[in-house]
Amino acid sequence: MAGRIQIIRGDITKQKVDAIVNAANCSLLGGGGVDGAIHRAAGPELLAECRGLNGCETGKAKITKGYKLPAKYVIHTPGPVWHGGSRGEAELLRSCYRSCLELAAEYGCKTVDFPSISTGVYHFPLEKASVIAIDAIAAFLAEHKEIQRVRMVCFDERTAGFYETALAGCGVET
Ligand code: APR
After folding, report:
1. Atom of ligand 1 nearest to the CA of 126
2. Which of 14-23, 94-103, 139-148, 163-172 has the lowest mean pLDDT?
3. Which atom of ligand 1 is nearest to the CA of 32?
4. CA 42/CA 32 separation, integer angstroms
5. What value, to the nearest 5°, has the Cα angle with vertex 109 and ends 142 and 156?
6. Helix, strand, coil percentages for the chain (3-state, nearest 5)
7. How far is the CA of 162 from the centre of ligand 1 (A)?
8. Does pTM surpass 0.90?
9. Residue 58 near residue 26, CB atoms below 8 Å
10. What's the CA-to-centroid distance between 156 and ligand 1, angstroms?
11. Predicted confidence (pLDDT) per residue in 44-61, tens digit
12. Which residues carry out catalysis?
């Protein structure tokens, strides 16, 4: 089942998949970066649904409809802010990927697209974040054959390079 994890360059708001993941904040009330892009593309109904979710803890995930997005669902997860690596940031980031995939499987999603969680405004170093992300995704897919494909949708070449390197080095057959 090789190739179930892919790295692409692109805009996650344009992807026609079962679920896209939003690198949100704990309020779930929108923000900048990919969060802002997803809310702009989805339209105001997304925020309206998010208002009813009562926020989300870092490392956990909540799911909404996709509204005007081509994706059916949006899975919102607040990633950890990088504070140097001694505040459990790695485990929290791993938890983001696992929590999103658990929800995706629960909702019968077969294709899931992720942005590079926490590596923008939250300053998580890309080299570390990419290895954590790929390892967490590979471990989940090895146990969950129902999910057909997971992609990292990278907004720039530099980000894509780190995820391609992490994928090449992960070694786990998915
Ligand atoms: N498609 C895919 N990736 C995108 C897009 C897009 N349209 N726009 C931005 N990105 C990328 C960024 O280039 C970065 O690689 O998403 C990655 C995550 O960056 P941020 O969006 O800054 O997310 P994060 O670092 O997790 O910080 C989250 O930022 O926007 C606020 O409300 C959000 O407070 C939260 C914080």
Report:
1. 15
2. 163-172
3. 30
4. 14
5. 80
6. 40, 20, 40
7. 16
8. yes
9. yes
10. 11
11. 999 999 999 999 999 999
12. 35
